[in-house]
Write a structure and sequence with these properties.
By secondary structure, this protein is α+β, with helices and mostly antiparallel strands. The chain has helices spanning about 1-5, 10-70, 75-80, 85-95, 130-140; strands spanning about 105-110, 115-130, 150-155, 165-175. The chain has 2 domains: about 1-70; about 75-175, 2-Layer Sandwich (Alpha-Beta Plaits), CATH 3.30.70.60. It is elongated and about 115 Å long.
């Protein structure tokens, strides 16, 4: 207290104002400013999470709508005729679509589809195929009601005279794992 009695009141007021300013600046810098910065960051994160949640809900609704369009694989397998062979099914689909003579190779093999189901895959190669014929073939080969799906399709322009498309198509038939 003795120190304050030695200085004039104007200097004392200036010292008090300076001390208040220093304490206020320190409180702002080390207390309030980090709190407000963190609050802004969290507010942005909450907004982003809310947008993601809205998007996730719309995707879930879209997934449910798409899943309802495809039959349960167990039901589809039950609807499949006895003695079903994917290779003969693909040949019949090609014959029905009118592309049997364009097939240059069919290679059967096992398919890993995951879940409770295994499968068989046939890799079909077709050459110089018109686009309309390809569409007819895919419509014949892709049969969800029989648990037969076109899994992969590779299309490129044919280099041979006459044009058309060279196609490589993987057709998968689900089977119950034993």
């Amino acid at each position: 207290m003795m120190l304050f009695s030695l200085v004039h009141s104007r200097e004392r007021t200036a010292a008090i104002v300076l001390a208040v300013l220093l304490v206020s600046a320190a409180a702002w810098r080390f207390g309030l400013s980090p709190f407000l910065d963190r609050h802004r960051v969290l507010a942005r994160q909450v907004a982003a999470k809310e947008e993601a949640l809205v998007r996730l809900r719309s995707l879930a609704a879209e997934y449910r709508a798409l899943a309802a369009r495809f039959p349960d694989p167990a039901v589809a397998l039950a609807n499949r005729p006895a003695g079903f062979s994917l290779l003969s099914f693909v040949e019949d689909a090609a014959r029905t679509a009118g592309v049997r003579r364009r097939i240059t190779g069919m290679k059967p093999g096992p398919a890993d589809v995951g879940g409770d189901y295994g499968g068989t895959v046939v890799d079909v190669r077709l050459e110089r195929l018109p686009l309309a014929a390809l569409v007819r073939f895919i419509e014949q080969a892709h049969r969800p009601e029989m648990a037969v799906y076109v899994r992969r399709l590779g299309v490129r322009r044919s280099a041979a005279a006459g044009g058309g498309l060279d196609v490589r198509c993987e057709i998968v038939a689900l089977e119950e794992r034993r």
